[in-house]
């Protein structure tokens, strides 16, 4: 039995192709008047998906992808639940910032300084 080892470039190309294929299928279903949720095609959902993809490529090591996911998730959830985002924006920002500061790895541990 043969086993196939994908080189990172080919594997990334495959996942990129799968993502583009799924997006194309969703747009096609939307054109056939199949009822899909409106939030699926919003800018916040695209931002959320892009943040998850970038995070996955970097093994979810702290970076800018977190900001993309937080902003995308916030506005997508407010769109899905139909709540006014202005009432919850600042508390959400403070909670997200606090969690980031708690869960962030200290700089000196990255450099192996004791």
What topology emerges from the helices and strands here?
Elements: H1 8-31, H2 43-57, H3 65-81, H4 85-103, H5 107-110
Task: Note down, in words, how this protein is organized.
The longest helix has 24 residues, at about 10-30. It is flat and about 45 Å long. The protein contains five helices and no strands. By secondary structure, the protein is mainly α. The model has no long low-confidence stretch (mean pLDDT about 75). Helices cover about 70% and strands about 0% of the residues. It has helices at about 10-30, 45-55, 65-80, 85-105, 105-110. Helix 2 packs antiparallel against helix 3 and helix 3 (about 65-80) runs antiparallel to helix 4. It has two domains: about 1-35; about 35-114.
Number of strands: 0
H-E string: HHHHH
Mean pLDDT comes to 77
- What's the N-to-C terminus distance? 49 Å
Tag the structure with descriptive keywords.
5 helices, 0% strand, 69% helix, 114 residues
Brief overview:
This protein has five helices and no strands. It is an all-alpha fold and 114 residues long.
